[in-house]
Amino acid sequence: GENVEQHPSTLSVQEGDSAVIKCTYSDSASNYFPWYKQELGKGPQLIIDIRSNVGEKKDQRIAVTLNKTAKHFSLHITETQPEDSAVYFCAAFSGNTPLVFGKGTRLSVIA
Amino acid sequence: DAGVIQSPRHEVTEMGQEVTLRCKPISGHDYLFWYRQTMMRGLELLIYFNNNVPIDDSGMPEDRFSAKMPNASFSTLKIQPSEPRDSAVYFCASRKGQGANSPLHFGNGTRLTVT
User: Fold this and answer.
1) What is the three-class DSSP state of B32?
2) Do the Cβ atoms of A16 and A8 come closer than 8 Å?
3) Do the Cβ atoms of B43 and A45 come within 8 Å?
4) Considering only CB atoms, which chain B residues are within 8 Å of A45?
5) Which residues make beta-bridge pairs with A31?
6) What's CA A31's distance to the chain center, in Å?
7) Which residues are within 8 A (CB) of B58 and not within 5 positions of it... i.e. 6 or more apart?
8) Do the chains contact at B109 and A43, CB–CB below 8 Å?
9) Is the peptide bond before B8 cis (omega within 30 degrees of 0)?
10) Which of A30, A67, A77, B28 is positioned for an S-S bond with A94, CB 3.0–4.6 A?
11) Are A6 and A21 in contact (CB under 8 A)?
12) Residues in A touching B99 (Cβ below 8 Å)
C-alpha cells in the first residue's frame, strides 16, 4: 500500500522567511496530494491540494509542487507570519483507498 | 453547514471503563472515517464507512475497539474496556464521494485520557 514520508518533523523560521516541507510517496498510482493545517485544539483543515496532471499550484503565500517522476511533493510558505504556526500534514490518494497521511511537521514562526 | 461535529471534546475516564465517542458527519457526505492521533504514530486510520457500511476496519487496534454507523448522520466509536494506552485525540472525518474532487473534512476531535 501507499506510504508517505514527511520531513522535517519540526521547523522553526523567522517571521517573513520562507518555509518548505517535503513529502515522498511510494504508490505511482497516487494522483491527488492535499495538504492540511492543524491548529491547536482543532482538526486538520485542507489548505491546498494538487493533482497529478499539474506540476505546481499557488494560492497567495502558499504553493505546492509535485514531481511525479521522483514521487515527491512539497509545500512552500512565503513571507511567514505567526499565524502560520501549526502542524502541517501532507497526504496521498490513489482513488482506491483512503488518504494516507504523513506524520506531520510542526512549524513555528518566530516573531 | 456546521461541519463535522464530535462529542465530547474531552473525556477523562478510568482504566476499564467503557468510552463512547460520537460523530455527526456533514449532511450529504457518504464516507465517514475515524482517525486516532498520537505524537508517536501521527494520524492513524482506524475504520471507515461508505453509505453506513464498514468498508475497512483493519486499523482498529484490538477487539476492545468497535464502531457503528446506524444512519447517515451518526457514528460512534466505542472502547471497552479502556486502557491508558488508548489516550489520544480521536478524529472523525467525512467526505462526499471518493474522488480527488472530494476533500476530507475533519471534526475538532475528542481528547481521550484514560487514567
Assistant:
1) strand
2) no
3) no
4) 106
5) none
6) 15
7) none
8) yes
9) yes
10) A30
11) yes
12) 95
CA distance A67 to chain B (A): 18
- My answer on whether omega of the bond before B81 falls inside 30° of 0, hence cis, is yes
pLDDT in tens, chain B (115 residues): 689 999 999 999 999 999 999 999 999 999 999 999 998 888 999 999 999 999 999 999 889 999 999 999 999 999 999 999 999 999 999 999 877 678 899 999 999 999 9
Residues of A in contact with B107 (CB under 8 A): 43
Which residue type is seen at B80? Q
The per-residue pLDDT for range A58-80, each reduced to its tens digit, is: 999 999 999 999 999 999 999 99
